[in-house]
Amino acid sequence: MLIVSSFAAYTAAPGLAPYHASKAAVEHFANALRLEVAHQGVDVGSAHMSWIDTPMVQDAKKDLGSFGEMLSKLPNPLGKTTSVDKCGEAFVKGIEGRKRRVNVPGWVGAFRWLRPALSTSVGERPITAMVPTILPRMDAEVASLGRSTSSRLEKLENK
Predict the structure, then answer these.
(1) What are the boundaries of each domain within the chain?
(2) In this structure, are residues 7 and 24 in contact, taking their beta carbons and an 8 Å threshold?
(3) What fold characterizes domain 2-157?
(4) Residue 101: its H or E element
(5) Predicted structure pTM score
(6) Which of 155, 159, 152 shows the shortest CA–CA distance to 17?
(7) pLDDT tens-digit map of 17-51
(8) Is residue 98 within a helix (H) or strand (E), and if so which, with residue range?
(9) DSSP alpha helices (H): ranges in the chain?
(10) Prior bond of 77 cis (ω within 30°)
């Protein structure tokens, strides 16, 4: 069984807190489920993909200039997308090999081990440097598309 998580389970990105939290939860769900069903001969794996060239990513690039800018400012290869076909091939190979983790592309797996360092002030520095300019623009772009009634900052200020 392969449970679909994401690269987002290994690291965080601004503007995507709910998505990252849910993908981390999915990873832990797969880990717990693996323990619960192993005695029945069932293997459980989790899939962790970076940006996949799906309609969700395509729409975000098209609709949100700030999203495209964020991707372009990420250190290589973090801002690159992978084809749906390559992702599917990796899933099939992972399922057939009864893998615990499927990382697409392969470099994503390194971030599982880097996770503790990435959540330090040094690890977060490259991302936090762009947040003050990109995140407010992203919020404004999302709001202008009618996908949000108020910005993240307004929600926090109203609490």
Answers:
(1) 2-157
(2) no
(3) Rossmann fold (3.40.50)
(4) strand 101-104
(5) 0.82
(6) 152
(7) 899 999 999 999 999 999 999 999 999 999 999 99
(8) none
(9) 17-37, 55-63, 65-73, 84-96, 108-118, 121-128, 131-144, 152-157
(10) yes
